From TrEMBL, chains A, B, C, D:
Catalyzes the hydrolysis of 10-formyltetrahydrofolate (formyl-FH4) to formate and tetrahydrofolate (FH4). The keyword Cell inner membrane does not apply. This is Formyltetrahydrofolate deformylase. Pathway: Purine metabolism; IMP biosynthesis via de novo pathway; formate from 10-formyl-5,6,7,8-tetrahydrofolate: step 1/1. It holds the Pfam family Formyl_trans_N. The active site is at 227. It catalyses: (6R)-10-formyltetrahydrofolate + H2O = (6S)-5,6,7,8-tetrahydrofolate + formate + H(+). The lineage of its organism: Bacteria, Pseudomonadati, Bacteroidota, Flavobacteriia, Flavobacteriales. Transmembrane segments: none annotated.
């Protein structure tokens, strides 16, 4: 059994030694340890991979021991993940297809080690792509009248299929607090600007209007504040006066694909931690 | 005589032919021609370099001909620059020295083909660098009481030394409308963020607070709206959770130096045109 | 009728005026003109887009006039393309699927304005992707014994389907002089390194071995010298000691996709010219 | 007392625990721990910062304990650095001044926490810069006849001034095995290409000739194989057909400055380890 441990807690001497000692005593071999201290906030972060090749303690037993022997004493917030299990990922889309094509191509290539139980959309437009890649597609139209009902239906689907996290692959709707509450730091969005610049609607138009020389894309966890959640990944590309808004959109598509896929891969590999509306990204 | 011509005017057929014909008839050889059409605004831009090796028409004669034979018919806004003349550049600084060191090093290396009649600062701190590079240094303190007087003194210095353009090399004061009016699109500022994100004070702190994965620097012409003038050049660099605000400042210094110097060189080479609070940057 | 003209010829005064005059006299409106002089080689390059809205001279008539009235006098090499025609693009693949998925997704999204009559591969592995996107797939195994026969078969397919250009989307075979001769500067390859570093086989392994901090991808026209043809586009990404060869491969895939697609789009838009084993890329 | 420990040794279970236990028992607080395993080579690397606020064991005592209690058992290669001591850095230059200006400006700004006992050059050209920044300048001409004598003189200067490491800031001479042997992995060079492309003389000319779309700079430790030592840092910038060799040189200068300064700062902070002609760069 291989496990990955995430910890954050108030910084104080001795934590690293205590944690490594803990795993050593149970016959675990530490494959990877990365630690970070937010000096300003006084918070200690750690990500640790441990292999129990011959001495599998069992996941629940291990969790219990961590709770009792480590977490309490150091006031740790923590998570323990067993490696090798494929998380279940749902994809939400509207009408733009580039991120969907990209995610499904990576999925079919074996690049994303997940299961994809279904795609949800508020439009029928991309059903043919879901069909092409043989993934169930649920069209749930959203409008002012049926909004609550639609979101309830979304949540039911997510829960009945035991979905672990959600990817908004250019889903052009604001996600409800209902879903955000059910999936805290587990809904990944792609926004087509280098946030915090150009939050909200039509960022490429706004960027063109402002005459920037660089455009970007940002992947972040969704919170109730629009486009203001913890940033996972950003990238940019240069533009100039020769580029029209249409060119921005076209160049931006490639950014969005890469930035979103990178964020999804980091999330799957348990390399992201959230604290204080920011992320710690382990490598 | 070599000249560079800048034009912008309403787009319509025949402009390129008319302009090239104009120079051809006067015995000029067009060394470079770049043109751009802002489709949305319907505006045509052109930058043209022409060599009158054997048929020097004289600068003022040429200007007169352009006004009569080209500009009127096509409703052109235009400028004509004689190449080979060294423009006069003033530098404004406060307490940060990295951009000043960088500009003066480039100047002494012959990389910037300008004259630098003086440096103005609101503090004494960097006088030693001016001395080291043998450039006059005027300390003009600015505070609430003497603000108008200080700005008048600045303007006098600029005008009496026939300064052509001003570089704010991390000058931590808001420049007065008096100066902006006297030097429209001829005051170059460096702002330490990828604008429009983090305009105003303490952008590195704000970027750190937001948890961005990319920081940037922006060079722009100064207008009366703070940090909102036409952008000349931007660049970015990646950061992560391991970087403190101090690291942002340190990484940002290198960006600021390069971005500001690039903008200054573009300005010197007459490769920038301003229209509609945006720039056209010819290569 | 809109046309795009490519010219290169010995540099001398008056070319721009002559060309613009030529189109003006035929009632054409020049939409775009970009020109470049290779000072060292003394060669003039031009790309010009012209719209004959009301005075369509006919493509062959126009070509004849260019030949007689411009090309001869200025010793021009030139090409004239009528816009709005979809070129026919063949794709060659082996076993890697990421570039194929990317090209076909872009094609189906309408991002690539081409027709794709077929895909050729030396293996059966990717047939399911061709099927998924509904493109004919020809498997032509290549080995030492049948090499000439296989290449002849490839060429027959290309010619019988009137293919305009070929994209090697990670085709792991050396292309024969037969094909290169039939498609000069019309076979686009993607190589997974920043050429000229790591030409030849296994560039990611070589890059890992050398301990570089940057890896890249290069798209180029295929010539008889392996990985030495005119470079169209390059891009890079950072790596560090934490990355294994497998990580290089994974990061590189994204580079390869973007770099190849960018090169293909430049080629389709007639924005590339080749001279002296180098490219001029108009924007 | 704060110390930084570098370790590399054959990978096996228990190393992290043993090391953290070692420092814990001596009352040290681990401020930072980063570890890396080269899976292919089976080598474990660690960098650890430890603070002995109240229990200063003394540097030599600590070294002795490490040797006996850790290093032997785990077959470690290791180094221990006491923080807060300013290393002594010599600079070698020839005729190019940009890297020298940049390093000295950073030095005077307090950005580089070193002492600079002197600059060595084979030419008189840059003496005025040394004077300007008030650093001793030794001109030691090198030619075929006096080569051995010159190098002996260089080494004498380095040793008599207790120089810790050497920076070749565009020193256009091949450094002798004599110096390399005396300063293994302590001579930092800047090469003006993205190595391994364009090793040797005139890389910008070679890059221009090849028609690359990206140029770069590489900082590396000097070994006896020319331009083949362990790479510390690389960066690149885009170029196009509009850029002449002169433009490459000009754009490259900025790269060289940043890349060299970054490498120097990593070296000063003990964030580089060398193994197998590659570097591990801790953040």
């Amino acid at each position: 059994m291989k496990v990955t441990l995430h910890i954050h807690c108030p910084d104080r001497p001795g934590i690293i030694r205590a944690v490594t000692q803990f795993f050593h005593l149970r016959g675990g071999n530490i494959l990877y340890l990365d630690q970070h201290v937010d000096q300003e906030a006084g918070v200690f972060f750690m990500r640790l991979e441990c292999d129990f090749a011959q001495n599998d303690p069992g996941l629940s037993m291990l969790k219990e021991s961590i709770a009792i022997e480590l977490a309490e004493q150091y006031h740790m917030e923590w998570d323990l993940y067993q490696e090798g299990l494929r998380p279940r990922m749902a994809i939400f889309v509207s009408k733009y297809n580039h991120c969907l094509y990209d995610l499904l191509s990576r999925f079919r290539s074996g690049e994303l080690e997940v299961d994809i139980p279904f795609i949800i959309s508020n439009h029928e437009d991309l059903r043919h792509i879901a069909d092409q890649f043989d993934i169930p597609y649920h069209c749930i139209p959203v409008n002012k009248v049926n909004k609550h009902e639609a979101e309830t239906r979304q949540l039911e689907l997510l829960q009945s299929h035991k979905v672990d996290f959600v990817v908004l692959a250019r889903y052009m709707q604001i996600v409800s607090p209902l879903l955000i509450g059910a999936y805290p730091n587990r809904i990944i969005n792609i926004h087509h600007s280098f946030l915090p610049a150009f939050a909200g609607a039509k960022p490429y138009h706004a960027a063109f209007e402002r005459g920037v020389k660089i455009i970007g894309a940002t992947s972040h966890y969704v919170t109730e504040d629009l486009d203001a959640g913890p940033i996972i990944e950003q990238d940019v590309t240069t533009v100039s006066h020769v580029h029209t808004v249409r060119d921005f959109v076209s160049k931006g598509r490639d950014l969005e694909k890469i930035v979103l896929a990178t964020a999804v891969k980091l999330h799957i590999a348990h390399k992201t931690m959230v604290y204080n509306n920011k992320t710690v990204i382990f490598y």
